[in-house]
Amino acid sequence: MFRELNALPVDSPKRERAREQIVRRCMPLAEHIAHRFDGRGEPREDIAQVARLGLVNAVNRFDVECGSDFVSFAVPTIMGEVRRHFRDNSWAVKVPRRLKELHLQLGSATAEMSQRLGRAPTASELATELNLDRGEVVEALIAGSGYNTLSIDSGGGGDDDSSPLTETLGSGDANLDRIENHEVLRPLLDQLPERDRTVIILRFFESLTQSQIAERVGISQMHVSRLLARTLARLRDELK
Amino acid sequence: MSEADNQPAPGTHGQPVEFIVPARLESLVIIRTLVSALGTLEDLDLDAVADLRLALDEACTALIRSSAPNSRLTVTVRPREEDLWISVSVPGVEDDVLRPGTFSWHVISSLTDAVETFHDGAGADGPARVYGITMTARRLDTSR
User: Fold this and answer.
1) d(C-alpha B138, C-alpha B135), whole Å
2) What's the rounded Cα separation, in Å, for the pair A233 and A214?
């Protein structure tokens, strides 16, 4: 059949019909493979659909001249298609994606509410604002900070697109003298990338909240948190 | 609209939560995560939660660095009416790991509402002396 198919000109309706015939004939193969993925949490019809698509791809790509029979070519192709479907859509990925969406929603609500309230909101306030369940909000916030935690440790600059911040720094420097080991600390602070130093000074010597710093510097509060964590860790190591 | 504002925070119902982790820097992730979960549940505002994470990093790093190998670090979180009280401690540390006036002290006291250090236990032949740091994070005054 494949030889017949290949003999036909590429665009001919006859070839199209021959192709369809092969696909129809092999359909039980796709159904059979789809059946093997039953009960893994994806709708059965979706899997069958993906398997059929895999079969069509296999028919299109099969090269008779290369010697092997169609079935031993088609089976791995269809399986691959179904596996890819699971990888892209399976439960393990779906949940974080949903959480990620929620996380984005929480991020913009947090920014907006901070502006309005003049301070960061609580989980309850966010839940009321977004009309969401409080428990769900708490979980998303925790998941978000967990995600955050990972990126703290993988840290490393790279994103220092710092705007001119120097003029935002005022009396912070004077407050530094109150620190016992300020003569050790000062050169360490001076060595920091500008934005890292700014964020440290605003938080610890000008007593701005993280949300206020976020607004002032033009980054998210979470980013401020990350910068502070990373910079404090660096200073701890150097002051040790 | 939900009435989340009017419900009592369904956190730990005022009961303290205590956990013990190996006194190693790798434990910082667990400490940060659990305490910020508790802080979020207890309805601290998000800035306060973020600050608490940094304060714990600072305090626990100091404790872990001066503790003996294989020691264990105890974290206690006690929700109170006005604030969240947190204690972190390790046994067998004699000297003052965290002294007022240092940058570390300044960092922790900027991030929390109160910092104190304590020594517990008899030392000498008795159970090992415990050294710890306590801090509090105040709840929002929602009547404002």
Assistant:
1) 10
2) 20
User: Whose CA is closest to B98, among B133, B53, B143?
Assistant: B133
Residue of B nearest to A220 (CA): B47
Q: Where in chain B are the domains?
A: 16-138
Residues of A in Cβ contact (< 8 Å) with B110: 203-204, 207
Pick the CATH number of B16-138 from 3.30.565.10, 3.20.20.70, 2.40.50.140, 3.40.50.1450: 3.30.565.10
Which residue's structure tokens are 């008899």? B122
Nearest C-alpha of chain A: how many angstroms from B5? 6
Q: What number of H helices and E strands is found in chain A?
A: 12, 0
CB B92 within 8 A of CB B128: yes
Give the chain B residue whose CA is nearest to the CA of A229.
B54
Q: Are B34 and B19 in contact (CB under 8 A)?
A: yes
Q: Who among B43, B53, B103 is closest to A123 (CB)?
A: B43
d(CA B113, CA B115): 7
Could you report the per-residue pLDDT of B81-136, keeping only the tens digit for each? 899 999 999 998 877 789 888 899 999 999 999 999 988 765 555 667 889 999 99
ipTM for the complex?
0.85
